[in-house]
Amino acid sequence: MTLASLRRQLLAGDTTSAAILHHLAGEIAARDSLTGAYLSYDLEAALAEAAQADLSLPLGGIPIAIKDNMNVRGQPCTCGSKILAENYRSPYDATVIRKLRAAGAIPFGRMNQDEFAMGSATENSALQTTRNPHDPDRIPGGSSGGSAAAVADRTAIAALGSDTGGSVRQPASHCGVVGLKPSYGRVSRYGLVAFASSLDQIGPLTQTVEDAALVLQAIAGFDPLDSTCLDVPVPDYLTCLHAGVHGLKLGVPKEYFGEGIDPGVRNNVEAAIQKLAAQGAEIVGISLPHTAHAVATYYVIAPAEASSNLSRFDGIRYGHRTANPADILNLYKKSRDEGFGPEVKRRIILGTYVLSSGYYDAYYGRAQKVRTLIRRDFEAAFHQVDAILSPVAPTPARKIGTFANDPLHEYLSDIFTLSANLAGIPGIAVPCGTTDFDGGTNLPVGLQILGPHLGEAKLLQIAQAVEV
Ligand code: GLN
Fold this sequence. Notes:
The protein has 468 residues and is of the alpha/beta class. The protein is 39% helix and 14% strand. The protein has helices at 3-12, 17-35, 43-52, 82-85, 95-102, 145-153, 169-175, 209-219, 263-278, 294-309, 328-339, 342-355, 361-384, 407-412, 418-423, 456-467, and strands at 38-40, 63-67, 106-111, 158-163, 178-181, 201-206, 249-253, 282-286, 387-391, 427-437, 440-450. The chain is globular. The model has no long low-confidence stretch (mean pLDDT 97).
């Protein structure tokens, strides 16, 4: 039941939007108590929308699951945090939601995530544990873990996630689904609760590459409400989908295949590269020399922006407010102390420190300079090749709890995904096999394909050649 096949069934009159929603509700009731992907859903509201659905539209009548950091009017938007879980209801639709509705889709379900999207395992959700449908002892990845797990578990047709440093691609890889992070500026961030505004992008998690193209088509494009959203035409992402890879130059960066990468991941990714070569792509060895600095650079810039963005959660305007504060300062402090979890506090402290006077130049300023070097690495590479191939993550999904007291280890596992956000380029994760890892069997492995800015159509075309 892919999005594309359901579209055909809907148009042929073989099913209805309401029937799809009832089916999903049944699947959720049957399995989501184990998977824990959904924080909430409103079947009645979705059925009311389904009754009005215009099936002639590109996503007419299709339910799409939404990560719990995108505003849907009247619905909760917890961001996986206690600070918003008690009493916040969205007063408006995010632009992606408005665009999904304009394409006929129905936002259905609020998906678990790491608190404020900070994490790679969904273990930082303050609200519930999400498990990998391929092995319930393992993480689904993160931070869009609920979105990925539901698509993999077939309790959702397709979902939206957000990707600041890999949060769409990495959970897609761990759950064996497709995840696309668009170029910075391709999709409006208006109504996405900001984590790190210069890095955040919204993208689809889907069962197939074609479905990713369909969802991207609906959400991409200019929005006057986001000043970083680009006013450039959106290409047709479906026309070139089956054009193949013959004659394309695909770069394989040596820095992405070094030590620390699991042999099963390496074998599957190399097999996918061979598959593309067999279809006529030219494989070229390349170098992205500043890769080793990506983790340090990201973990200065992202917390810096987060510390600023999260200052709005002060106990006054949104969400949790402490009981019986002594004075106004105490109200701010206690509300934030009670509302935020440990990882969010760690990032706020780190970010405030790197922005503080006396340290700003040494940390934040320098990180911005290294960010430029990382971007230039990609610009140089894309003079040589059409796209870049790599693993999404160094290992398949690990067991829940492995890095509970080791955030640094967790940060290091983001090495392959962070650079795309720092450079503003698009990236897609596409399943490329399974492997055994740390006592687990048949765990999904993802291939990452990175492209030049606004090169989403080419990425989808290459990903399609991996999928078939
Ligand atoms: N794992 C990274 C982090 O914790 C990326 C998260 C994301 O993309 N939202 O910041």
